[in-house]
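Q: How would the structure tokens look for this protein?
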Amino acid sequence: MSRRDAAVTELEGRIGHVFADRGLLERALTHASVGARSPKTLHNERLEFLGDRVLNLMAAEHLMRLRPEATEGDLSRLLNKIVTYEACARVARAVGLPEALRMDGGATKVGARDNDKVLGDACEALIAALYLEGGLPLAERFFLAFWTDEIANMEAAGRKDSKTLLQEWAMARGLPVPSYVVVASEGPSHAPRFTIEVRLPGHDPERAVGGSKREAEKAAAELMLSKRELEP
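A: Here is the predicted structure in token form.
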């Protein structure tokens, strides 16, 4: 069994469904970079289109049940917090999509396999594949299993993240926008570890480690904020 075959098997184990239509699953897992090289190869962009609509439907229905008192405006605000490409990317990583994707070597080299937008699109394609394979019940089972944390944290999601807060802190003191520099990148492509240093003139830099550049940047910003909060 190849490394990718093993990753696909693990993916199916995590989502709790073995696809009867292997071609449908393969299409959901094929990045457009492969199709660009071979026009006859089907990739996942059309499935992404469908999956986005299915995801929005499931999330909207779930929010209506969860918040029976909410207005249309409130529901729209909450929906926009849990149906984002960042949320889809987090779910993609949780189910092992980065390792299972079929992707051109060039796209992998430039970091597409760890790109939130690419992973978010692949997650939506997977949702579409589940919907086409087993209808809304199968897609909803996936949604309820992997969107639990997103729904639980949707109110907190509206708060500003540490990078935004640090930038506002710096600007209020006449300082430039903080810069983020990758000082180390380690580990295999399916489990990378990035060390990011945040720099601000007149202040000691701070470093943090994360499984993605975005995660490490936020952690570094939070560390710098925690040490700056006591300053006037």
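The chain has a mean pLDDT of 87.

The chain has twelve helices and three strands.

Upvote if useful.
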